[in-house]
Design brief:
473 residues, 11 helices, alpha+beta
């Protein structure tokens, strides 16, 4: 799902309203110790599938967990500086993005660039053979989760079809309006979508990247408390995963390091979830009537958020006592987030630049308003969505591979040409050959983009200063 304009403000308003309705009280939530837990899961959270560690091949556990430790030992996990409501925050979780070469993933106004995993037709030089092995292990996990996700969706569609047919037969003589109210609208999980063709399932499960996370709760000076249910420490707050292909499945492999027996809490001594264990929390989005769920995650467990669950529900990650790694596999919506795309945009923009064969002088082919507007829009996109995003994150990518540096240098050369094209527009507007009306028309489309560029440059400079202060602290 993509983040729409105004989504942050809308979310803040909904959160404030929800907290006001709650007042001093907590919403109820269930754990496996509660008798109603599995029934609630089946009826209100049926699109969350948990695959226990023992059901996953042991050899896969071994290489994936070894990959986590390798990446950590090589210093490849970094906290991200994200931007929320105009303010910068360091994420409590450290991350690295691994996936298809040339792909990016943007969340909370920060674009991450994939460390490419091994793929045919791509020459990828890793900084150490261990890093090659780690990325190879993660693409193996990716392939396994892809197969599991397809089978899970097929099983879900089969169950929903059978349930619908069984209900239709047994309630054939029931009043139609009563049937609609009593049987279909009661359970959100029965929203049957007859799209069982292979292309659709493949489109929604072909993971193109994984966002890896690491956090040691005992090293964190402060963790936010879950605000609605009283679930305790949160590693990741309530959210929908953003910038994903619509109705695509998210698959998560979880590995919390083994703790000692003394870390466990006597279940009879606590209400709610065991704070020593990591959990995934789920709730129906902005709903105070349906109890939430806290599902414990043991080392090697996987869970799948199927179909539209990521759209209709929110999830959070509740911290335990031990350090934890996770690999979150996604079908990222990359229509504007690949090297192929941005190079294509540059090609469009530079078509308006021509070289005089005699003097080798550069000039613009057209000063039509729409052409100028498109070129300057691409100019801004290259600078603020790609170059500044990449270099702002420093030299972190050198920890794994230098794969990105050549295309980014090429992108920077394109940007320099677009900077020159901007100066050419300004020169042309200043000439007396054009009527006042023509000049005003060009300026009216040109000036807002220049103003936006100036404001964004100030914003990025401020972010850089803020980051420098954090590093010094």
């Amino acid at each position: 799902m993509k983040r729409r304009a105004g989504a942050s403000e809308n979310k803040a308003a909904k959160k404030q309203k929800l907290l006001e309705e709650l007042g001093e009280s907590w919403l109820p939530y269930l754990t496996p110790r509660d008798a109603e837990f599995h029934q609630l899961w089946k009826t209100r959270y049926s699109k969350l599938l948990l695959r226990k560690a023992e059901k996953i091949p042991q050899e896969l556990h071994h290489i994936v967990q070894e990959a986590f430790l390798t990446l950590q030992n090589h210093g490849c996990f970094f906290q991200d500086l994200v931007r929320i409501k105009g303010k910068d925050f360091l994420t409590p979780v450290s991350r690295i993005l691994i996936g298809n070469p040339g792909c990016t993933y943007k969340y909370l106004n920060t674009r991450l660039f994939t460390v490419p995993w091994p793929m045919e037709d791509y020459e990828i030089k890793y900084c150490h053979p261990e890093l090659f092995a780690a990325c190879k292990a993660l693409i193996r996990l990716n392939d396994y989760l892809n197969i599991e996700a397809v089978q899970a969706l097929q099983g879900q569609i089969f169950s929903e079809t059978k349930e619908t047919e069984d209900t239709a037969v047994s309630d054939r003589e029931q009043d139609f309006s009563t049937f609609i109210k009593g049987s279909l609208l009661e359970d959100q999980s029965n929203l049957y979508t007859p799209r069982n063709d292979c292309n659709s399932l493949k489109h929604r499960t072909s993971y193109n990247l994984t966002l890896l996370n690491y956090m040691d709760p005992l090293q964190m000076p402060y963790l936010k408390q879950e605000p609605y249910f009283g679930m305790g420490n949160m590693a990741v707050s309530w959210h929908h995963d953003e910038n994903l292909v619509e109705r695509s499945t998210v698959a998560v492999y979880s590995y919390s390091c083994e703790g000692s027996a003394s870390d466990k809490v006597n279940e009879q001594d606590v209400e709610g979830r065991d704070p020593a264990d990591w959990h995934v929390g789920l709730k129906v989005a902005w709903d105070i009537k349906t109890p939430g769920l806290a599902i414990p995650l043991h080392p090697g467990d996987c869970y799948f958020m199927l179909d539209d669950l990521n759209m209709t529900h929110q999830h959070c990650v509740l911290a335990g006592f031990q350090p934890r790694f996770s690999s979150t596999h996604r079908v990222a919506e990359c229509s504007t987030g690949t090297l192929e795309y941005i190079f294509g945009q540059c090609e469009i923009a530079l078509q308006n630049l021509q070289v005089d064969s005699d003097s080798v002088a550069l000039s613009l082919k057209s000063l039509e308003v729409q052409v100028v507007k498109e070129v300057e829009g691409i100019h801004n996109e290259v600078e603020f969505e790609w170059l500044r995003q990449f270099w702002f994150q420093g030299k972190r990518y050198r920890k794994c591979t230098d794969w990105w540096f050549e295309p980014m240098a090429k992108l920077e050369e394109f940007w320099k040409k677009m900077e020159f094209m901007t100066s050419l527009v300004l020169c042309e507007v200043g000439k007396g050959e054009r009527t006042m009306e023509q000049r005003n028309e060009i300026i009216s489309c040109f000036l807002p983009l220049l103003t936006e560029r100036q404001e964004l440059r100030k914003e990025w400079t401020a972010r850089l200063v803020y980051t420098t202060k954090i590093i010094q602290c």
